[in-house]
Amino acid sequence: MKFTAAILALALGSASAFVQPSPARASTVVKGGFDGNQPMDYSKAGMQTVSDLESLAGELNPVVKFFDPLNLAEQEFWGDSNEATIAFLRYSEIKHGRIAMFAFVGYCAQANGIHWPWAMTKAGDAFPTDLSPPEQWDAIPEAAKWQIFMVIAFLEFWNESTGTHYMRGGKIGAFPALSGEDSPLPHPVPFNLYDPFGLSAKKSEEAKARGLKIEINNGRLAMLGIFGFLAESKVPGSVPVLVGKIPAYAGDYMAPFESNFHTMLYH
User: Fold this and answer.
1) Is 178 strand, coil or helix?
2) Do 44 and 25 meet the contact criterion of CB atoms below 8 Å apart?
3) Residue 20 has pLDDT above 60, yes or no
């Protein structure tokens, strides 16, 4: 029961709204950076600095506070500005936290035999339920894996190419619209990836700010959680609290097509 409650808390505690940080300093910079070798002008108005990170860290975790042992917050990746680098780091953490929350809840669901109510393939093949979550991935058809990867690739492309980029002053954590008047797609899409049912449309700015902090903390916890599952499945006993609860996995997490990649090469 406690385990189920923890899953629900992680799934429902995620934020569904984002706010732009308070303006740091307004200036214009000429940098090459991730846009390519050609320098370009862009304003740093409203982009975060190290001091903003330190303030945010204290709000997220008053005990640990600001923790940057590799001094990443002082860097200038790809020859870009420090503000752009901080935006990249912040967006990377939020994105990885979201994926980890999906992964953690998905692992728990699959481990308990929960799956879609329809057949897995058009041929009528059922979803495998007698396997561990990573073994279930290995067992699905190669075509299904490519479909999943293509959807992910499109979402990544859409996020990086639509609207103002987060490394150029765009809102940290926001995903471009897929549906509605704000979407530049030439065909209708029923829902947005972000807030598909419009539940946060009327939230106050204070509620959005609190929601973002909740999402960041839940994402950090989920990253630790899913990697705990993976570590225990490969090295039994490496996570004492999970001993006897996570089945061993003989496959390779870093080779998602290991079981059938050769079929693409020889057909």
Assistant:
1) coil
2) yes
3) no
